[in-house]
Design goal:
This protein is an alpha/beta fold. The protein contains nine helices and 14 strands. The N and C termini lie close together (10 Å).
């Protein structure tokens, strides 16, 4: 059973740093490395995982809160990095990975190098190329979609059928509008290539539960323009209004900013 069980969690998830861990079918992966190498290693220790045993690191996009620990991590551990060609070129050209890093392109939006089948899909965000991931394992699928200005059909369709979903609930609209960010930054965050607010995230969750989702992890919660309990309460209210029952039909957790989330096993 242990060999076929899927384990998934975030090691950190916020506007300051993002890193997730997935283990399935005898293989293990990181998704993003936006926290320090030390924090990654410490998080893996809590999971009884060794960094040098990782099979790959998958990068969603090149923004610092998703890759700032990558270069030091790769200096210590020779793990291959997968992403889109645009992101890999950006990392190499801007000295964000070691010169001897093993960089592998997600060709045709998929990776078939492992027992788990890993599919990438575009997310609408202001980067050189931002993607989410759908990871198929023997026991089910995990969907990861952070950094998206709106819920596109492509994102929605790739999250359907996933048992566990990490989805962005980045900002509370009132907090952002009344906050101290400059006007241009507020406009960027609220744009179609910015981030997903609590209300827009919550409004999509019931369709995922109707399509096999059992666990929803609210991620990339802004430290400045959101609060974990606001993201959670907004999600629960929207789901309750649709007749879904927490801990019976689904679970929802706001991912901790700088600590490990609950570990989902199935």
């Amino acid at each position: 059973m242990a060999d076929t069980m899927t384990e998934f969690c975030t090691l950190a998830s916020s506007s300051s740093g993002n890193c997730a861990f997935l283990k399935a079918d005898g293989e293990s992966f990181l998704i993003d490395a936006g926290i320090s190498c030390r924090a990654i290693v410490n998080g893996l220790k809590l999971l009884n995982a060794q960094p040098n045993e990782l099979n790959a690191v998958f990068i969603t996009h090149e923004h610092s809160d998703h890759i700032k620990g990558l270069k030091v991590f790769l200096k210590n551990y020779k793990i291959p990095v997968y992403s889109t060609l645009e992101v890999l070129n950006y990392l190499a050209e801007n000295d964000l990975v070691p010169v001897d890093a093993v960089l592998r392109e997600m060709k045709d939006n998929r990776c078939d190098d492992f027992s788990a089948q890993i599919i990438s899909f575009d997310t609408p965000h202001d980067s050189v190329h931002s993607v989410g991931y759908r990871i198929h394992t023997k026991s089910g699928a995990v969907g990861i979609a952070t950094d998206l200005g709106y819920m596109s059909d492509e994102v929605r369709e790739n999250l359907y059928g996933c048992k566990t979903i990490l989805i962005e609930s980045n900002y509370d609209r009132a907090m952002l509008e009344c906050g101290t960010y400059p006007y241009y930054l507020k406009r960027r965050i609220m744009s179609d290539r910015g981030h997903l607010c609590n209300d827009d995230c919550a409004g999509q969750l019931y369709t995922f539960i109707e399509n096999s989702a059992e666990h929803i992890l609210l991620g990339h919660i802004s430290r400045e323009n959101n609060l974990p309990h606001l993201a959670y309460a907004t999600a629960i209210q929207a789901l309750s209004e649709c007749g879904a029952r927490e801990n019976t039909d689904f679970t929802v957790v706001a991912a901790p900013a700088s600590e490990m989330s609950p570990v989902y096993r199935f």
